[in-house]
Specification:
Strand content: 25-35%
Strand order of the largest sheet: 7-21-22-20-19-16-17-18
Number of helices: 9
CATH topology of the largest domain: Rossmann fold
Radius of gyration: 23 Å
Length: about 450
C-alpha cells in the first residue's frame, strides 16, 4: 500500500450538508464530495484540504464562520489535534442521536429493514470512562521532553498533551507525571508505547522497551508506580515477554447485579467502559429472556463476559472463542464464581466448525454473538442448524451488523429490536445490540 501523499495546499469555504458515518461533515464542491473533520451539519466553515482523490477530498476545519446551534466547546485543549476523540464539539445527547441514525441508515441500506422496535440508547459516563488504551511514547531530543499520549490525527506523531479527558482519571490526570518518569530512564528514546489496563482495584501499565532496563531505570519506574498507585509490567518483545517489574497484581471487574467477579490479564481483551458493560449485560439478559430450560451458545465469548451472567439464569451455556488464553480464563472465572453449568471450547469461528463437539448433533434454542468489527457472516449462516430461534447480536460495526442482518432475514429471522450503546463517548465508534427471533 502506497504512502498517503500530502496534496497541494488548498483552503475553501464550505456549507456542511450532513454528517458522515465517521462523524465528519459532508459538503459538495466542484462535483466532489468533501469530508470535513470537525464540522457539523448546517455550518459554514473555512477548511484546509488534507487529502485528495478524483471523486472526493478530505479537509480539516480551520475556522467556523457560522456555527450549528448544537455545537459545543470541546472539553479537551488538544481536541482537533489528538486522534483519540472526534466528537467533543457535539453534546453527548447529540452524539448518541447521530449514532442511532447511522445504525438506522446501515439497516435500511444493506438489510432493507429496520427493527420492529427501537431500544432507548444506553449511556452512562461521558468522561474518564476509558480503562484500556495504547498510548504512544516519544522522546523529543530537541526539546529534551518525553511525550505520552494518543497519536495525532492522520499522523504518527504523539500529541503533546498534559492530560486526557476520556482516560480513567487515575491515569488521564497524570500523563505529565508519567512522561517525566520515562524522561529519567537511560533508554527513554527506546520506549515506543505503554499499554494501559485499569481494573476496578488495580492499574497496570505495560512499558514496551526496545533496549534493556538497568537497575536505576527499574527504580525510577518503582518510584513512579508508588506516586501514581499503579503497577508496571515490562515488554521487551512479543506478548509472551510481558512480565511484572516486581510482583504481579490481580485485575478484576464485576457484574454486581449477578454476583460475578471477572479476573483478567492486562493483555486480555475487555470492554473499555466498565459501567456501560454492566448495563449492556443487563440489557442482553433482558432481551434473551432466559429461563431454567434454555440451552444457550455464546459465540466469540472471550473471557465469558456474557457467558457467566447468562449461566446464572439458563440451564446450560456453551462459550466458544478462538483464543486459548481467553478460554482458560473463562473456565477459571466460572470456577471462581462457582458456576458449574458452562462449557468452553476453542474454535476459529471464521472457518469450518460443523465437526466440532459443541456443534455436531447439538441444539441451542438461544444464542448470543459478540464478534469483532468484521462481523460473523460465517457463523450466522449456521445458526439454523444449531436450532437457534432467539439471538442477541452485539456489534461494534453497524456495516457488518447490517450485512449479517440481511443474511439472518434471508434465513427466516425477524429483526425485533435494536439500539445503540455509548461504549466510546466523544468518538464516532458505534456499539449496538439487536434481537432476532425465528
Amino acid at each position: 500500500m502506497g504512502r498517503r501523499r500530502k496534496p497541494k495546499a488548498k483552503t475553501y469555504e464550505l456549507t456542511i450538508e450532513s454528517l458522515s458515518h465517521e462523524g465528519r461533515g459532508i459538503a459538495h464542491l466542484d462535483e466532489k464530495v468533501i469530508f470535513v473533520s470537525g464540522a457539523l451539519p448546517g455550518e459554514m466553515v473555512i477548511a484546509d484540504r488534507t487529502f485528495s482523490r478524483a471523486k472526493f477530498e478530505e479537509a480539516d476545519v480551520k475556522e467556523v464562520i457560522k456555527a450549528a446551534d448544537h455545537r459545543i466547546s470541546p472539553k479537551c485543549e488538544v481536541f482537533g489535534i489528538c486522534g483519540g476523540c472526534s466528537f467533543q464539539h457535539l453534546s453527548s445527547e447529540d452524539q448518541i442521536s447521530a449514532k442511532g441514525e447511522w445504525l438506522k441508515d446501515a439497516f435500511l441500506g444493506q438489510a432493507k429493514a429496520e427493527p420492529e422496535q427501537w431500544l432507548a440508547p444506553l449511556q452512562v459516563q461521558n468522561w474518564g470512562y476509558r480503562r484500556k488504551a495504547r498510548l504512544g511514547v516519544r522522546y523529543v531530543a530537541k526539546k529534551e521532553k518525553v511525550l505520552v499520549g494518543f497519536r495525532e490525527k492522520k499522523s504518527g506523531f504523539i500529541t503533546n498533551m498534559s492530560r486526557c479527558e476520556v482516560l480513567h482519571p487515575s491515569l488521564g490526570d497524570n500523563l505529565e507525571v508519567l512522561a517525566e518518569a520515562i524522561g529519567k530512564l537511560s533508554i527513554k528514546s527506546q520506549v515506543p508505547q505503554i499499554e494501559v489496563a485499569v481494573a476496578e482495584h488495580n492499574t497496570v501499565l505495560i512499558l514496551r522497551h526496545l533496549e534493556p532496563l538497568n537497575e536505576q531505570d527499574e527504580q525510577v519506574l518503582r518510584d513512579c508506580a508508588k506516586a501514581l498507585a499503579v503497577t508496571f509490567y515490562t515488554q521487551s518483545g512479543g506478548e509472551d515477554t510481558v512480565k511484572p517489574l516486581d510482583q504481579p497484581v490481580v485485575l478484576t471487574y464485576s457484574h454486581p447485579d449477578h454476583d460475578i467477579e471477572m479476573e483478567f490479564l492486562p493483555t486480555d481483551f475487555t470492554q473499555v467502559n466498565f459501567k456501560l458493560n454492566q448495563k449492556m449485560i443487563n440489557l442482553a439478559l433482558e432481551l434473551l429472556d432466559l429461563n431454567e430450560h434454555d440451552e444457550v451458545i455464546d459465540l466469540f465469548c472471550g473471557l465469558g463476559n456474557f457467558t457467566l451472567p447468562m449461566a446464572r439464569y439458563a440451564k446450560h451455556v456453551v462459550g466458544v472463542e478462538g483464543d486459548m488464553g481467553l478460554i482458560e480464563r473463562a473456565k477459571y472465572n466460572a470456577e471462581q464464581n462457582k458456576i458449574g453449568n458452562t462449557d468452553f471450547y476453542k474454535a476459529d469461528l471464521f472457518k469450518e466448525v460443523e465437526g466440532f463437539e459443541w456443534f455436531r448433533g447439538k441444539t441451542y434454542n438461544k444464542a448470543l454473538i459478540d464478534p469483532a468489527r468484521s462481523g460473523a457472516i460465517e457463523i450466522v449462516e449456521l445458526l439454523p442448524k444449531l436450532g437457534v430461534n432467539h439471538l442477541v447480536y452485539v456489534s461494534c460495526n453497524p456495516a457488518t451488523l447490517a450485512r449479517d442482518t440481511a443474511k439472518l432475514i434471508e434465513l427466516g429471522y425477524k429483526l425485533k429490536t435494536a439500539g445503540v450503546m455509548d461504549m466510546f463517548p466523544q468518538t464516532a465508534h458505534v456499539e449496538s445490540i439487536a434481537l432476532f427471533t425465528k
